[in-house]
Specification:
Elements: H1 2-6, H2 9-27, H3 37-89, E1 95-98, E2 105-107, E3 111-114, E4 122-123, E5 128-137, E6 139-140, E7 153-164, E8 171-178, E9 200-202, E10 209-225, E11 228-238, E12 244-254, E13 262-265
Parallel strand pairs: 1-6, 3-13, 7-9
Antiparallel strand pairs: 1-2, 3-5, 4-10, 5-7, 7-8, 8-10, 10-11, 11-12
């Protein structure tokens, strides 16, 4: 019975169709041989180039993100630092003493700027002092006529120094207000309350203030007009891949005493 069924024309036609399909599949490689070694190597090379390109794009994006974050944070830090420096510069003054008889006595306390940084934004190349000045309160002698007692003056030195960063990139600025001469060691010769005179006392250590700013590459002080100084700071950091972040900030300070002089000296 089975042989009779298979001998039917419709079944024979079906067998022929299956045979033709197998031949066509073989011709199109459906059941053909696998990849050759050359094809595998070429595919791996193309995939490697693709992954390398994707990694480069990812790395560049990450570097750009880091650079942007650093610039934003550094700008805020620089503005805060320069605000503190401006407030101190605006308090800079000479040492003034007032007596019950006679004219007031004035001991000049100039603002000292390191040679090469006055009226020029200059790249830092070594750890050094950059700026020095004094902040005082006046002395008033006792006055028996109006029955006032003696009020001694106070003195504090303010110094700005550059110190090499620990990571070797740029410099760290250190701004210090202190009545202790050893706190201003980079702005030698030593500055003490003796500059103000015997009627002045150094500020106590409890009032010492010191702040820092990292990644500084250049700084300059410009005597823009009598009684006004402009301070410019340039910060920089290398993030690799030829990507360098840069921040430039400037502030102007107007002296409380317009007759203060600015002198360029060697620290």
């Amino acid at each position: 019975m089975f042989s009779k069924i298979m001998s039917l024309p419709s079944m024979q036609a079906g067998q022929g169709s299956c045979k033709e399909m197998n031949e066509r599949a073989a011709n199109f490689g459906v059941f053909g041989k696998g990849f050759t070694l050359a094809e595998v190597l070429i595919s791996c090379g193309v995939m490697s180039l693709l992954f390398a390109a994707l990694f480069g794009v990812f790395r560049g994006g990450a570097s750009g993100f880091k650079s942007g974050q650093w610039q934003l944070q550094s700008q805020k830090k620089a503005q805060l630092f320069l605000t503190q420096l401006r407030e101190l510069l605006e308090k800079a003054n000479n040492a003034e003493s007032y007596f019950s008889t006679g004219t007031p006595s004035v001991n000049p306390l100039p603002i000292n700027v390191k040679t090469g940084f006055l009226n020029s934004v200059t790249a830092l190349s070594e750890s050094t002092g950059l700026l020095y000045f004094s902040v005082t309160t006046s002395y008033s002698a006792a006055n028996p006529v109006i029955r006032t007692s003696e009020v001694r003056g106070t003195w504090a030195g303010v110094s700005l120094s550059a110190v090499k960063n620990n990571d070797g990139q740029g410099y760290r600025l250190v701004l210090t207000r202190s009545g202790t001469d050893t706190d201003h060691i980079r702005c030698g010769p030593p500055y003490t309350q003796s500059l103000a005179g015997p009627n002045f006392t150094a500020e106590p250590a409890a009032r010492r203030v010191s702040i820092e700013l990292e990644d500084v590459q250049s700084i300059g002080f410009s005597n823009v007009s009598p009684g006004t100084v402009e301070v410019t700071i340039v910060m920089s950091r290398n993030f690799g891949g030829n990507r360098i972040g840069t921040v430039r900030e400037t502030v102007r300070a107007k002296f409380m005493n317009s007759d203060l002089s600015i002198a360029a000296i060697s620290f």
